[in-house]
Amino acid sequence: MKALKIIILILFASVMIYAASDLPFRGDPDNLMHAEESITGTEVVGSYVIQEAYNDAKTPNIVTVILGDYRSVDTFGEQVVVFTAGLITILILRSRRRQI
Length: 100
Prior knowledge:
By secondary structure, the chain is mostly helical.
């Protein structure tokens, strides 16, 4: 059984290394991620956010602007899911404690 776990870990590591070998170089200026215009001719959202985050929210922290202003509904949804999971965990653990 231990040999099977080691084989699975080696296979998983091999797949991750293979997948990572196809990633672009991190500082490559020709990477599409750094383009001002997408292949369809529209502005890339990342470029807009970097250039206009302070003007839109008057907040110097770009991460706060993205999470609090641009993606606020999505972030709130994620917080509700995490809170609900924690609440359910507490309720399950409390009910098991009473049974023991």
